[in-house]
Amino acid sequence: MTILVQDKEVVVPGDTLAEGMGYIPGYGSYRQATKIIASRLGLVNVEGKVLKIIPVSGKYLPKRNDIVIGKVIDILMMGWRVEINSPYQAMLSSKETPEFIEKNEDLTRYFNLDEYLVAKITNVTSQNLVDLSVRDQGLRKLKGGRIIYVNTHKVPRIIGKKGSMVTMIKQATGCRIIVGQNGLIWVDGEPAKENIAVETIMKIESESHYSGLTERIKTFLEEKTGVKLDMTGEKGDYNGLQ
Amino acid sequence: MVDIETKKHIIECLTKGVRYDGRSMTEFRPIEVRTGLIETAEGSAQVKCGNTEVIAGVKMTMEKPYPDTPNEGILMVGAELLPLSNPRYESGPPDAYAIEVARVIDRGIRESKSLDNKRLCIQAGEKVWTINVDICPINDDGNLFDVGSMAAVAAILSATFPAVENDKINYKKRTAEKIPLAKIPIAVTVSKIGGFFIVDPQESEEQSCDTRLTVTTTDDGNLCALQKGGYGTLTIPDIDKMLTLALAKATEIRKLIKDSLVPRTGESYE
After folding, report:
1. Nearest CA of chain B to the CA of A142: how many Å?
2. Which among A59, A114, A115, A199 is the top mutation candidate for probing chain B, defined by the most B β-carbons within 10 Å of its own β-carbon?
3. Residue A114: which of B3, B13, B16 has the nearest Cβ?
4. Are the beta carbons of B115 and B84 closer than 8 angstroms?
5. Right CATH number for B4-260 from 3.90.190.20, 3.40.50.300, 3.30.230.70, 3.40.50.1000?
6. Beta strand A130-133 with A90-93: parallel, antiparallel or unpaired?
7. Every domain of chain B and the residues it spans
8. Do A73 and A107 belong to one domain?
């Protein structure tokens, strides 16, 4: 039982991370005979006995219970096909809407082509078919506002610990912001304030690996907006849905 | 294409006087011009305008002139839109947009009459200089017309003739002689989105504009070429407004290009 890599080391697919049965493969790695091998490019994270890889880039891989933002690209007999910035397409069934939709009803009344929506992934099959639902609090069609794309793997940094980062941006700019786990972010507010919010999000994306990020973003926002931020109070929820 | 929702939102923001990247309506992104960066070409230029980046190169050959202009040199401008610059483009023969970009830039330089074709003649009816300008976008974040034309003009201005030995071109040796370009033609595209006139659109703005008018002007304020694109319509006051804006912007850009030209002498690099 030997570990061949250090914490935060960069590995490429095929690299052997550890030998022997003493370690457990986590996300982005797999076991072959007695070895643990990397299947993605990224940084190794050693957590006790679990070896997982934090990818540095790549498309979004759908996961159950994730909140995502998608665009309607097709209307089917019983639902909508949704683009979720992933190699796999998602389906939103007409049974998964808050209101009851009759058979043969015109589905464009609910979601039309090119419209954006926030939805929750209810299921991902072994064939990577993705099912969505808009039957939960805060899940809906996104009217107005602007959609921006960020690196999927930077989403946790944009949300921050318990939503602290996104709450801070909301407080400073007064914009409504929803962060999808798939790297799509919806920003809606005063146009000039929207620009500041988008700029801040881009700054977080490009500087997420530096330490003291929250403090830096706080000063940046205070400079840009002139709003004194008080981050001691209540934190928002995970994706900023409320 | 940009989706309807995005277009709606862009117009909504313009109504409040805000563009997506915080610029004013008549402001270009920061422009950066570098010349003479490709050693093997007779002239070259790289122009960055925000995230849009274009490289242009000039190659010169000796060829037989066209029969109708036996004592005039030849200018050819080509654009190849690389798939790496924008996922919209595909490799293969140039599409309608690539041809339009090349032709608008070509026409701007040609119709400005700033290139002294007669001086490119070596032997009438037999041999003239041919100037090939190739335009390659490295990254396309909108406004290829303007950035491409800046790169093409800067590349021509930076070019020097190769040496001719026994009727053959020696590309390894360079003379100090420059291409006779008397004026600097500059293309400025003014886009109309929902009744607003903007210059230097970034990609999402360019994709959602109704109409665009590319205006090429020379140093003395002469209009030398116009190209209208998009499905919208323009009234005469619209065009007046667009021309005034384009003229003012062209003066600014011309100064930038003049400043960027580093004098290059007949150095050889064997």
Report:
1. 10
2. A114
3. B3
4. no
5. 3.30.230.70
6. parallel
7. 4-260
8. yes
Which residues on chain A are in Cβ contact (under 8 Å) with B12?
144, 191
Distance from B195 to chain A by nearest Cα, in Å?
18
Judgement on whether residues A215 and A151 belong to the same structural domain of the protein: yes
- Give pTM, 2 decimals: 0.84
Chain A nearest CA to B265, separation (Å): 42
- For residue A179 the two structure tokens come to 């962060």
* Two structure tokens written together for A65: 């219970």
Contact A146 B9 (CB under 8 A): yes
DSSP class of A92: E
Q: What digits encode the pLDDT tens for the residues A173-204?
A: 999 999 999 999 999 999 999 999 999 999 99
Q: What is the pLDDT of residues B151-193, one digit of tens each?
A: 999 999 999 999 998 888 999 888 888 888 889 999 999 999 9
Question: Is the CB of residue A70 less than 8 Å from the CB of residue A82?
Answer: yes
- The token duo for B179 is 């291409």
Cβ within 8 Å, pair A192-B4: no
Asked if B6's CB is within 8 angstroms of A146's CB, the reply is yes
Handedness of CA A151, A157, A158, A161 (dihedral sign): positive
Given A115, A144, A192, which is nearest B9 (Cβ)?
A: A144
- Asked if B5's CB is within 8 angstroms of A192's CB, the reply is no
> Taking the CB of residue B198, how many other CB atoms lie within 10 A of it?
24
Distance CA B16, CA B11 (A): 9
Q: A167 lies in a domain?
A: yes
What is the pLDDT confidence band of residue A89, given thresholds at 50, 70 and 90? confident
